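Hi R.,

Here's the chain you asked about this morning:
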Amino acid sequence: MRNVLAASLLVVSALVNTGCPGFCGGLDGAGDVVYERNTSEMLIVCNNGGYVATLPSGQLEGRMQYDVEGHRFATTGEDGALAFDFVDNYDGTASTPQLGASMWTEVALDAVALDHAHVLCTDLEARAWWTGGL
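And the predicted structure, written out as tokens:
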């Protein structure tokens, strides 16, 4: 009886903690970097060259690019306009001056949380502006 109870608790724990019965498998998101600030804002710098920013004003998404001097910047997906400059401080923080003065702090996510964040990155590839070349 104790073994049945222990097995039941293990299954419930797997569902609650991962959201995936049977542990889903095939977790992805390697190369994506997730930042947060003010406990309510999130910025995902995606391995596929895109980004997703969740801000109080709404969600902003587009592409991350480099200028000729090697500085990184982000453009909006819809029109390719400058969204923000991205300054990596190489200490686990980054700044985006056009989005405010507060610093972004890199978040160490477990494999499941990183996989869930990665879904936002792969969703970018389905946007008309992604395939349109902006």
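The chain has one domain: 28-132.

Let me know if you need anything else.
M.
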